[in-house]
Amino acid sequence: MAGNDDEAVAAADDALYVLTAVLLTPAQFPSVLGDDYPEACAALGLAPLADGYGLVLGQDGEGARWTVVIDDVSLVAVAIASWDCGMEYELSPDERAVVAALPGWPLAVAVAAPGVAAPHDPAPEAADRPALRPPDTSSWGPAQRRLGADEIALQWATWREQINDAEFSVRGEQDTPGGQDRPEGRENPEESRPADGKGVPRSGHQGVRRVLAEARAYVDSQPPLGRVRSSFAPGDARTLRADGPGWSIVARTDDIAFVLLDEEPGEVLPVGRGPELPGLLEALDKMAVRPL
């Protein structure tokens, strides 16, 4: 999602060389920042506005990292869509759209602007708050668990092909999970790959039962905004993402689900379709927030 290296916007009276941009809305936000939209906003010190924000990440003329928050969500959405299609797009929001200029970056950015110093935090006197930094994902925890769920959603077909549906039904456990460990030594979700699919469904995983019960409770009691999100999937299906205290679910409305738990480092637990999962997924999809 990187823009042209010479793109710049005016922020805090300085030129900002735009490196990338992301949406921060109830339906689309960097999940590494929190389990829901208000939590992600709180990580940046922002109020959870209904329409959301666009986050523009870049460097100033001295190479310092800045995150410019704007309220022109449509502009950022168009820029991201253009970059994803390999098209050039000059992201230059009006100064009146700037909500805040925050020091640092809340997400890891692998590129840098040419012709300026290497990315670094602004001098303390240049900002009125500590610099933002990406959440620590060096060890398993909430941030890495959510990144793992992100990867499964993006690479659904790759993960799904590792699951043999017969294993769910052979033992009569159509609605119970099977353990699928990530390869040894691959704790980072962005580096993980599915296991060989030889795991046999275990009988009644207590943690997964708890997660499914908490997800069902969302249907009766509205959770914080963004806890349940629905996005595009092939055919008539939807990709569902639900998060809660210590857990994440990724599912297709016409297929199975995967559960990740804080207490199960690096493990992905598939949940067979069975008699109950379809109804739960349908109910969650009806209440989920969706991208505009």
Descriptive overview:
This protein is an alpha+beta fold. It folds into 2 domains: 8-126, no CATH class; 142-287, no CATH class. Helices cover 24% and strands 22% of the residues. The chain contains 7 helices and 11 strands. The protein has a 6-stranded antiparallel β-sheet with strand order 6-11-10-9-8-7, with helices on both faces. It has a 5-stranded antiparallel β-sheet with strand order 1-2-3-4-5. β8 (238-244) and β9 (247-252) form a beta hairpin. α6 (206-220) packs across α7. The chain is elongated. It starts with 7 loop residues before the first strand and ends in a 5-residue tail after the last helix. Residues 1-13 and 170-203 have low confidence and may be disordered.
Strand content: 15-25%
How many domains is the backbone divided into?
A: 2
DSSP summary: helix tally: 7
Structural class: alpha+beta
User: Which blocks of ≥5 consecutive residues have pLDDT under 50?
Assistant: 1-13, 170-203
What overall geometry do the principal axes of the alpha carbons give?
elongated
Question: H/E order of the elements?
Answer: EEHEEHEHHHEHEEEEEH
Query: Largest sheet, if any?
Result: 6 strands, antiparallel
Mean pLDDT: 84
Radius of gyration: 20 Å
Number of strands: 11
First-residue to last-residue Cα separation: 19 Å
